[in-house]
From TrEMBL:
Top-rank taxon: Eukaryota
InterPro entries, per database record: LRR_dom_sf, LRRC14/PRAME, PRAME
GO biological process, one term: negative regulation of apoptotic process
Name listed for the protein in its UniProt record: PRAME nuclear receptor transcriptional regulator
This protein's record includes keyword Repeat: yes
Species of origin: Myotis myotis
Record bears the keyword Repeat: yes
Family: Belongs to the PRAME family.
Keyword set, alphabetical order: Leucine-rich repeat, Receptor, Repeat
A GO term from the CC aspect: cytoplasm
Length: 491
C-alpha cells in the first residue's frame, strides 16, 4: 500500500486542524513559521474567516502576499474584510506582540506568487522570498545592551500595497472597505500603490488619491479626456511621485477659451514636474494636444535617460523631431514609437539621426501610420541597418512601394536579433480603380519576401503584413491569408 505524498499529508493535516477553528486559533501561538503558509492557504480556500483574521495578527513574515492567492479572480469580500480586520486588530494593540513581523500586506495579484508554492521547502527558502533580513538570525543582546536599551521605539506604519484603477462610479465593496480602514488608522496604516491608473476625474477619486502614499507610485496612467486646466490641478500630485518609472499621459485637450499666455503657463507648470521624476524610464504621450512645438520643454526637464519613448497620435512640428534627434539622451533607449504622427511633410534627416544615435540599444521601433513615403524610407534604411539590438520593427499603413520593401529586407536581414517585422501592404497590392486591397496580389508580395528570406538565410525572420480589415476597420494580419480578424469577409 503506497503512502500519500508528503505535501498531501500536510494539506490533510491543515484541513483537519481547521475543522475545529478554536483549536486552530489556539495553535497559532506555537505553530512553526514554515507551517503558516500551508495553513493560511487552506483557511483561504475554505473561507475560514475567523482563522484568517487571527493568522494575519500572528503572521511571522514581514510580508503577507494575499493578492497572489486571488490571482485573476475578484477577491471574496469576506476574506478581504477578514484580512483587513486582522490588520486593524493588530494595529489597535498597545504593545508589540511577541511574534509581530508583519510590515506589508500586499494585495497585488502578480507579486510574490512563488511564495505560496515554495512553502514546502526549507525555512530559509520561505523567508528569503519576502525579506532577506528576515531569514538572518538575530544577535542576542547582553546585559549591557539591555541596560542601555530605552523604551520600545514607535511602531513603523504597516503598508498595504494595491494596484488602483480609479474610474467612473462608486468604488467596489473591497476598495471602499480598504479606504475606510486606512482613514480610521491614518498614520499607522499606509496605502501604497505601485501601479495607478486614472480613467475618470471625480471628487471621490481625488479623495482616494489623497490617501495614497504618492512616493510609492511607480507606474502612472492618466488615460481620460482632460482639459489642460484639469491636468494643471493634478500637477501637485505628479510632483510627489519621486519613484515614478513609467508615465502614460493620454487625451489632453486645449480649450479655445484658453489664451496663449494661459496655455503657456499651464504647459510650463506641467513640464516642470518632470524635474521631480529622477527615476522615470518610460514616457508615453498619446493624443496630447499641447505637445506641438513644445517638446523641447519636456526634454529639458528629463532628469535621466529614457528606456522607452512613445509619442503617438499627436500633432508634431519638424522642430520637435529636430529637438529629439539632437537633445534626447538615447544612451539607454530600447523602445521608440511614433505611431500616428504625421511625418509626411517632415524631412527625414532628424528621424535618420535619431535612429542612428539610438542604434546601439534600440530593440523595438514603431513607425505605424506616419505617412512615410518611399524617399523618406530610403533615407533611414542605412540607420536601420545599424540597429544591432533591434528585435521588432513595425511600419504598418505607410504608402511605400514593393521596391522599398525589398530594399528594407536586404538592409535588415543581417540584424540577427530581428525576428518580427510588421510591414505595410505595398502600393502594388491595391486595386488601381477602387483602392481596395487585392488579396491575390498581396499573397504574391508575401511569397516574394518569403523566398528572399530563404535565399538570404533568414527563414526564422517573420514578416507579417498588417492592414485595416475591409469590413470592421480593425487591423488585420496577413500571412498570406487574413488572420486575427474573425469578422473578415473576402472581397
Amino acid at each position: 500500500m503506497s503512502l500519500p505524498a508528503p505535501r498531501r499529508l500536510l494539506e490533510l493535516a491543515c484541513q483537519g486542524l481547521l475543522k475545529d477553528e478554536a483549536s486552530a486559533i489556539a495553535a497559532l501561538e506555537s505553530l512553526p513559521m514554515e507551517l503558516f503558509p500551508p495553513l493560511f492557504v487552506a483557511a483561504f480556500t475554505g473561507k475560514h474567516t475567523k482563522v484568517l483574521k487571527m493568522m494575519v495578527q500572528a503572521w511571522p513574515f514581514p510580508c503577507l502576499p494575499l493578492g497572489a492567492l486571488m490571482k485573476d479572480r475578484q477577491p471574496d469580500h469576506e476574506i478581504f474584510q477578514a484580512a483587513l480586520d486582522g490588520l486593524d486588530a493588530l494595529l489597535a494593540q498597545a504593545t508589540r506582540p511577541r511574534r509581530w513581523k508583519l510590515q506589508l500586506l500586499n494585495l497585488q495579484k502578480k507579486v510574490h506568487q512563488e511564495f505560496w508554492t515554495v512553502w514546502s521547502g526549507t525555512r530559509t527558502d520561505v523567508c528569503s522570498l519576502l525579506e532577506p533580513e528576515a531569514a538572518q538570525p538575530m544577535r542576542k543582546r547582553g546585559k549591557a545592551d539591555r541596560s542601555r536599551a530605552g523604551p520600545n521605539p514607535p511602531l513603523a506604519p504597516v503598508q498595504v500595497f494595491v494596484d488602483l484603477c480609479l474610474k467612473e462610479g462608486i468604488p467596489d465593496e473591497s476598495l471602499s472597505y480598504l479606504i475606510k480602514k486606512v482613514t480610521e488608522r491614518r498614520g499607522s496604516l499606509h496605502l501604497c500603490c505601485k501601479k495607478l491608473k486614472i480613467l475618470a476625474v471625480s471628487k471621490q477619486n481625488m479623495n482616494i488619491l489623497n490617501m495614497v502614499q504618492l512616493d510609492s507610485v511607480q507606474d502612472l496612467e492618466l488615460n481620460c479626456t482632460w482639459k489642460l486646466s484639469t491636468l494643471k490641478k493634478f500637477v501637485p500630485y505628479l510632483g510627489q511621485m519621486g519613484s515614478l518609472r513609467r508615465f502614460l499621459l493620454s487625451h489632453i485637450l486645449t480649450s479655445s477659451r484658453t489664451t496663449m499666455e494661459q496655455e503657456e503657463l499651464c504647459v510650463g507648470q506641467v513640464t516642470s514636474q518632470f524635474l521631480s521624476l529622477p527615476c522615470l524610464q518610460e514616457l508615453c504621450l498619446d493624443s496630447v494636444s499641447f505637445l506641438k512645438g513644445r517638446l523641447d520643454q519636456i526634454l529639458r526637464s528629463l532628469k535621466s535617460p529614457l528606456k522607452t519613448l512613445s509619442i503617438t497620435n499627436c500633432l508634431f512640428l519638424e522642430r520637435d523631431l529636430r529637438h529629439l534627434s539632437r537633445h534626447l539622451n538615447v544612451s539607454q533607449l530600447k523602445g521608440l514609437s511614433f505611431s500616428g504622427l504625421n511625418l509626411t511633410n517632415i524631412t527625414s534627416g532628424p528621424l535618420q539621426l535619431l535612429i542612428e544615435k539610438a542604434s546601439p540599444t534600440l530593440q523595438n521601433l514603431d513607425l505605424d501610420e506616419c505617412g512615410i513615403m518611399d524617399p523618406q524610407f530610403m533615407d533611414i534604411l542605412p540607420a536601420l541597418s545599424h540597429c544591432s539590438q533591434l528585435m521588432t520593427l513595425s511600419f504598418c499603413e505607410n504608402p511605400i512601394s514593393m521596391t522599398v520593401l525589398e530594399d528594407l529586407l536586404r538592409h535588415t536581414v543581417g540584424l540577427s536579433k530581428l525576428t518580427r517585422v510588421l510591414y505595410a501592404a505595398p502600393l502594388e497590392s491595391y486595386e488601381e480603380t477602387s483602392g481596395t486591397l487585392h488579396l491575390g496580389k498581396l499573397a504574391q508580395v508575401h511569397a516574394v519576401l518569403k523566398q528572399m528570406l530563404q535565399k538570404l538565410g533568414r527563414p526564422d525572420m517573420v514578416w507579417l503584413c498588417a492592414s485595416p480589415c475591409p469590413r470592421c476597420g480593425d487591423r488585420t494580419f496577413y500571412d498570406p491569408n487574413p488572420i486575427l480578424c474573425p469578422c473578415y469577409v473576402s472581397i
